[in-house]
Amino acid sequence: MAWIIKHSRSIFALISLASAAIVPQKPLVAAPHEHSTAKPLPLVVWHGLGDNYKADGLRSIGSLANSTNPGTYTYFIRLDKDPSSDRTATFLGNLTEQVQQVCHDLRTHPTLSRAPAINALGFSQGGQFLRAYIQRCNNPPVHTLITFGSQHNGISEFQNCGDNDWVCKSWDGYLKRNTWTNFVQSRLVPAQYYRNPEDLEGYLENSNFLADINNEREAKNATYKENLKNLRRFVMYMFSEDTTVVPKESAHFAEYNQTSDEVTKLKDRMIYKEDWLGLKWLDAKERLEFKIAEGGHMQLSEELLKDAFRRYFSANAAREDSN
Hints:
The chain is an alpha/beta fold. The chain contains 13 helices and 10 strands. It is globular.
């Protein structure tokens, strides 16, 4: 049995809607699990591009988390109580404001706010958004963060166009020419984690989101580093045959040079060597893990998920990591 979490490959059809306002609403409060004495930490899930918090596939994963570790209370992050609007918010919106809303929602949630800590599971772009939550607020604090196919080092292509798909290539060119405009950076979600190694100057000057949470600018945010160092475990899965995320190595914080076709792994980058985020510190404490998931983007097998839930989200795992 396998789940494929929907990840829309076409953001271009929504460009004309970019000026539309996304009005944040308070999330629905999920009912707590009937076993109030459950030992596993609550699990918070942030879905990916083109998905919504009520999607059947996402809910199935929540059920699997509970069957693997009975008593797991799962909360699905949403930016709007309406599933359609929540899906739209994965394409359109200001990420700074979206993360701020999630910080408020988790901090004031009647169940999560009383937990000593939570576990976090991020699918695709939801992974780097959860990392932003940890770095910027982390209340309640995250014990273990797992990300699947996330773009921790950004994307260098908005869409992987076919050789003869000239419409796709035209829109891709348009977005690249206008990526650093305030209009795009404050409205189009994927543009806010766009990072082209051949245009770092434009990225560092204009990126609304990724350059900040990756602490790449000259002025470093010490809180980001200290908050991330509080993780007891940070596990990053990269999909071996991922063609949706370009480059796929971004899932491991690696950098890919399209001109030379060379991949620079995290440990060879300045972000690690100078420890801008605390990743080197986590690695030295054996809290940083790099995993490979076979298959294409967000092709998740039950076996893979159960192994991750059992290994990292069980009550025993929490106790062992805390020792």
